Protein 1
Amino acid sequence: MIYKSYLFSLTLRVLGLLFALILLAFGIVNLHTYAIIGGAILTIISMYNLYQFAIKRFLEVDDFLESVKYRDFSRWFVETKGPQDIRQLHKGFNLVNKTIKAIDNERQAQFVYLQKILEMVNIGIIAYNVESGDVLWANDSFLKTLDFPSFKNISFIEKRRPKIYDELFETYHSNTASVTLEMQQETMKVLISDTVFEMEEHSFKLIVLQNIEETLNRNESEAWKKLLSVMTHEIMNSIAPITSLAETLQKNIQETIEQPQTAVLELEDIHAGLSSIKKRSEGLMKFAQTYRSLNKVTHVHKTKIKASLLFSSIDELLKPSLEDKNVILNFDLNDPNLTFEIDAYLIEQVLINLILNAIDATSTVSNPQILVSANISHKGTGQIKVTDNGTGIPEEIMDSIFVPFFSTKKTGSGIGLSLCKQIMLLHGGKIQLQSSEMKGTVVNLLF
């Protein structure tokens, strides 16, 4: 619209100038005095008018560009006076100013928003000019962490804390590094990371500083609490069947003492029961020793053991507990000579955990059954499966079932299955779980 109006006005003035020149040329050729005078006057008037027309619009554009140069977007150009094309031009200028002001306001709002966020985070942040040392921005957390007042140039720190200055501003940390800063009366452990960036032909350095002293102390305390929880859970899992088996043996011996004629003491049963108690006690001792020396938690001591011996030991250990709960525990072994190269004590701990979970899962079903089987998978690797016909695991918590300390039991610690997974990983294997609500669960140990 502006272009059409401008072109129309310009065309009229050019045609007027052309007419005046033709009139002047006619007068000169025909020596017509009035035509020469009239043509000369019209030519001067037309040229002046065309000049004024063009220069006025150039001045308007130059005026607008001048305001842009000095970022004066508050100016308002008159839209109700002057030629139509200039009015349209002013409307365009005002629209540009309005748009730029809106963008600038939005940028300022984002800057204030970002600044408030960085002020609230518990991480120290500082940005400064690498050449001059002038501080572009530093949040309160940075000043509070290092116990500094507000400063405008990093030379302030160089004069008062030269060691901190060297570590923060002279040393480049390409990756996040943990360093110890010497304060006035104490030392502080912090994480430092920094990066250099370019902005308007200047180099700036951004430093991020996080005090991890309190976090380390808090995490250490939490780690000890969780470790004690793990130890308690696993020890109780082993003590419960040992206690039950010991009570059964004690009951049999007591009956033999009181009624020697009718109650015959089966020495083989006593021997088998004591052997199971001894083996589980040794496994419990090894488990405790493993946690007592945390640097050994990543090692397993593998030996070759037949699956039949592993199953027999678990059967002897858990049989008394299962009889009280009317749970049927079966073992299925297609190959009696099937052998695993494993840490028998730790895998026994895993199977006890899984069987006890299966017992809980079948507590509300009729005819509860648990099947433990071992065979060679189609990939040629050994596997042990624990299958139950219990209530199953809800689909919405399947992804969280191996997360440490996640539990759906009111009295559970949530470390049983996570520990089973860790033990399998130490064996270079994995644990897989398939479950359907009200149909049961299958846990597969792949070695």
Protein 2
Amino acid sequence: MDTKTQDLVNKGIMLPLMEEFYTIQGEGCHTGTAAYFIRVGGCDVGCHWCDVKESWNADLHPPTLADTIVENVKKHANTVVITGGEPLMWSMDYITESLQKNSIKTHIETSGAYAFSGKWDWFCLSPKKTKMPLDECYPEADELKMIIHNKSDFIFAEQEAEKVGQKCQLYLQPEWSKKEKMTALIVAYVMKNPKWKISLQTHKFLNIP
């Protein structure tokens, strides 16, 4: 990458775009709603069960002008979900400001492991044990989405729930490869602890992106 391009990436004017697509949000609070997804490359959180490992190496994904991405969004949707990879590895200030100037709602799905940036209508925080969220990200969370891979993850979920604000909605989501076993445990847990809600990866059941 040449120096000029690297400078634009550092400023968030360009982003390592892995893919972008218009689909239905499959997880969390906005399940079932239409949204334009922007998946940026780059992640060192290293979840062993990640289903998008091809996003980890940012060098594999071409730097793309944020302005071009915004123009693509405008053709399809009034809500954007920026995900990854780990989107907060990059400055989100430029692209979110541009989206909001065009009356497009901005949502993010992040581990919170990098410095907060961007202007968000919805901030979905999904903490991972391998690289914990920064303290500054917890008060921003509108939604806490905890992935349940084993029984110890319920303890981790409760620990993380103590760190977010009262406005934050709490979700438990079974890790896909363990969905049968973990879903049953989550159902029982939510019935005993109704502050939590269940999130399912409904897009996978629907066989859509």
